[in-house]
Amino acid sequence: MDLNKNNEKPWEDTAAGGQSPVDVPPVAAGAAGASGAQRSVLDDLTASVKQVDRNVILRLLKNPLEGMKLSSSTDFGYGVVGIAAAVVGFLVWVLFMGSAMNSMLFGMFGFGGGFGGFADLMETKRSVSAAIFGRMFLISLISAASFLAALWFIGLWRGGRRLSIKQFITQIGAMQFVVGAGFVAAGLIALMSIKLSFLVVTVTLLSTLVLSVIAASDMFQIAKERLASFVIFSVAAYLLLVSLLSSIVM
Questions:
Q1: Which residues does 183 contact at the CB level (< 8 Å), separation at least 6?
Q2: Is the distance from CB of 191 to CB of 99 less than 8 angstroms?
Q3: Please, what is the Cα angle at 80 between 79 and 85, to 5 degrees?
Q4: How far apart are CA 210 and CA 59, in angstroms?
Q5: pTM of the predicted model, to two decimals?
Q6: Could you tell me which residues come within 8 angstroms of residue 94 by beta carbon, excluding any fewer than 6 positions away?
Q7: Closest CA to 151 of 220, 93, 96, 89
Q8: Positive or negative torsion for Cα 132, 138, 141, 146
Q9: SS3 191
Q10: What does each C-alpha distance from 237 to 78, 152, 205, 220 come to in angstroms?
Q11: What is the pLDDT along the chain (250 residues), one digit of tens a residue?
């Protein structure tokens, strides 16, 4: 029996007299690659957001369809910031609308109940406001994600052009700056007139829906004979996704 074989170290390279590198387990290598990819995406996103130009945003506010001229390679930040602006604008409107409705209710019914009753009422108001704000935040995220997903998938299905998700977010997202501005304006108007505020929000949402569908039909090169079905399926898919995700999350 050759005892030297049993004493050989598995990491020694007997032919070269050196030490071979240790193999990295596939799972660890995959995890490292995924982590590196995530860092790369975040770095690219951060760099794109830092390059956002105020003058370009002003042009997008004046004419949202200017977003169709943007390129994902250099203007991706406008799409991301535009979507974020729409969500933040909606939350601003919720805050102002809640304040206006609270003022109206307090004016109608008064405080009542002395100091203790007033303190209890204010505590209840804060708890209810926090719960409503959190729910509205979820609704805004669900609505934005459903809207983008509906246009994206229906566009791929009915369109004649394959569009990357990054290019799609860049162009459609950049058109949402006007949505954020509309929500903020509606919030300020709510302090004077709740009815008028709801009217401004309705006009903002309908206008955005129409403009986004028009832009998406052009981006995906929807044929004229498929345009009607694209519009119908996009709106139906959006409403279905909002209803489904809301029932799951909320």
A1: 86, 89, 90, 92, 93, 201, 204
A2: yes
A3: 95
A4: 19
A5: 0.73
A6: 132, 133, 136, 187
A7: 220
A8: negative
A9: coil
A10: 25, 11, 17, 17
A11: 454 544 444 444 444 445 445 555 554 444 455 455 456 556 666 766 777 889 999 999 999 999 999 988 889 999 999 999 999 999 999 888 887 777 776 656 555 444 444 454 455 456 556 667 778 888 889 999 999 999 999 999 999 888 899 999 999 999 999 999 999 999 999 989 999 999 999 999 999 999 999 999 999 999 999 999 999 999 999 999 999 998 887 6
Q: How far is the C-alpha of 97 from the C-alpha of 138, rounded, in Å? A: 17
For residue 59, give Cα distances in angstroms to 56, 141, 237.
5, 25, 30
Residues in the chain: 250
Structure tokens at 117: 């009753």
